[in-house]
Design brief:
The chain is of the alpha/beta class. The chain has helices at residues 23-39, 55-68, 81-91, 123-134, 150-160, and strands at residues 13-16, 44-49, 72-78, 96-99, 108-115, 118-119, 144-146.
Length: 168
């Protein structure tokens, strides 16, 4: 499988949907990321996505790649990025992927990742590309479960954030 190296950026993976960031590429990224999780001695990954129209198909491809590498996936659906980081803590899962185009135009989408408790960037992101290039993947059959955390997140914020003055 040919995958565009240009989508592997310094702090995330980002490309034009159905051009440089395809569902096939996203599947392979899932396999590579899942391989890193498994080789790091863990198995679970939590994923979320923003509201972009390409999110659901990229999420499905990502889940397939992760589970084919042997990871168990918890999907939390369409949520703001801070909810994904909350899920890391709340679910005690140290690896996560947010499918988000961030501030980019609508034809873009991308992946922000935490791996084994650390945000990944630079050479660690390029390691995913090299695993794909070498076709060096773990094989397994992970499970998928859906969790709804937005209400838990909102309650945590409500109960733990104290404002000095009431909001107007």
């Amino acid at each position: 499988m040919n995958i565009a190296q240009e989508i592997f950026r310094a702090y995330d993976i980002r490309g034009i949907v159905d051009n440089t960031l395809t569902t096939d590429a996203t599947y392979l990224i899932g396999q590579a990321f899942g391989t890193k999780v498994i080789r790091g001695g863990q198995k679970e990954v939590v994923i979320g996505r923003d509201g972009r129209l390409s999110g659901p198909k990229l999420e499905a491809a990502l889940i397939s790649g992760l589970t084919d590498a042997g990871c168990d996936v918890v999907t939390i659906g369409a949520v703001p990025t801070p909810v994904l980081y909350f899920a890391n803590f709340n679910l005690n899962i140290s690896s996560s992927i947010m499918i988000t185009g961030s501030h980019n135009p609508p034809d873009y989408n991308g992946l922000k990742m935490t791996l084994l408790g650390d945000a990944i960037y630079g050479d660690t992101i390029l390691d995913l590309y090299h695993l794909i290039e070498a076709n060096d993947f773990e094989k397994g059959k992970g499970q998928v479960q859906k969790k709804e955390l937005i209400h838990t997140y909102i309650n945590e914020v409500k109960n733990n954030v104290n404002l000095k003055k009431p909001m107007k």
